[in-house]
Amino acid sequence: MAPPGELPVKTAALTGVREITMRDVPVPRVESDDDVLIAVRSVGVCGSDIHYYATGRIGNQIVRYPFTVGHECAGVVEKTGAGVSRFKPGDRVAVEPAMPCYICDQCRAGRPHTCRNLKFLGCPGQACGCLSEYIVMPQKSCLPLPETVDFDGGAFSEPFAIGMYAVRQSVPMRGASVGILGAGPIGLSVLFAAQAEGARAVYMTDRLEYRAAFACRVGATWAGNPESRDVVSTILRAEPEGLDVVFECCGRQEAIDTGMELLKPGGKLMVIGIPGFERFSMPADLMRRKEICVQNVRRQNGCAEAALEAVSRGIVPVATLCTHSFPFDRTAEAFEVVAGYRDGVIKAMIHLNRLSRTHP
Q: 149-200 pLDDT, tens per residue?
């Protein structure tokens, strides 16, 4: 890794659909008094990164190549602006990828996650991502990494914060019956958050048998594949009154339909997954008769520090979840593994400063 002030440093950029190229770029500069220059150590590959990789877009957010994605990361402070008081060079930090303006109506209303002027790491038209040896973030987007948490744990605190926020926005968890449709990293984050808040039973589904089995191993009451069994009748046999809340974590129309069937009257459907299409449809009669409440979940809001604290207390089994590790120069391979659900992957981590230059 080239030290700050020297060129070049490396970034892994999308240069086309399913195409990643290692590029030389200038070291990002500390330009504001509030800036923190971070040497990135761990980056988690997120499902949204895969959307940009595989299709070049999420909704109306379209990649203009070359573009660097990635928003789950942790690293070491290299340099700070004159106004930074919380951090010094050498400090280990986790990164909150959102950079709100703090002055618009949404920010003033306590909703910085829907800031009118939001910049978010790895989001086209907002900010380049963290798949780079160095990034600059504002001081407010940096969190001290507890001594007990490694860089992977710091990076994974970001998706876990989404699960924590979703649970907090849903229903009182103490004694609740919960469904989670999708057993990827976000669905599993919801599982751990729900368990921590006292959920009585958590039922999960996933179209991949290995992920359903993984969910059972890490604490789900039951998990099954909706393509090989009738998950609705199976869950309702165990919970004949229906579920209190269902979290849709896979971005599929079938999951919306399943969630509506599983919910009890007055239940709540939490929509978290990112679909690859423009519109969901809802079964109007069932939704009306059950008086179902539907709420979308937009990233996380005010949960970053609590998520990091939960990781430090062992609520999230990070080492078990991070099933795959890749050096930085094999980023393209990491994305192909995640995009293809290969080799039993749950969460793939990319480790910087561990280049394998001899790898073909």
A: 999 999 999 999 999 999 999 999 999 999 999 999 999 999 999 999 999 9
pLDDT at residue 4 tops 90:
no
3-state secondary structure of 82: coil
Q: Supply φ then ψ for residue 83, to 5 degrees.
A: -95, 0
Q: Which helix (H) or strand (E) holds 58?
A: strand 57-58
Q: Which two tokens stand for residue 205?
A: 């589904």
**CB contact at 8 A, 85 and 40:** no
**Within 10 A of 208 (CB to CB), how many other CB atoms are there?**
16
Query: What is d(CA 283, CA 333) in angstroms, rounded to the nearest whole number?
Result: 40
Rounded to an integer, the average pLDDT of 8-33 is: 95
The answer to whether 122 and 97 are in contact (CB under 8 A) is: yes
Radius of gyration of the chain (CA): 20
287-322: burial string, b at 16+ Cβ within 10 Å, e else = eeebebebeebebbbebbebbbebbbeebbebeebb
Confidence label for 353 from pLDDT (cuts 50, 70 and 90): confident
What local confidence, expressed as pLDDT, does residue 117 receive?
A: 97
H-helix segments, the chain: 47-55, 105-108, 151-168, 185-196, 209-217, 231-238, 253-262, 284-290, 304-312, 318-321, 331-339
| Dihedral Cα 252, 256, 257, 260, nearest 10 deg | 160
Nearest-angstrom CA–CA distance, 280 and 343: 31
User: DSSP character for 127?
Assistant: B
d(CA 11, CA 357): 15
CA 222 centroid distance within chain: 23
Domains in the chain, CATH or no CATH each: 9-160+301-351 (3.90.180.10), 170-296 (3.40.50.720)
* pTM for the structure as a whole: 0.94
Percent of the chain with pLDDT over 70: 96
Q: Per residue in 75-110, pLDDT tens?
A: 999 999 999 999 999 999 999 999 999 999 999 999
Enumerate the β-bridge partners of residue 243.
Answer: 263
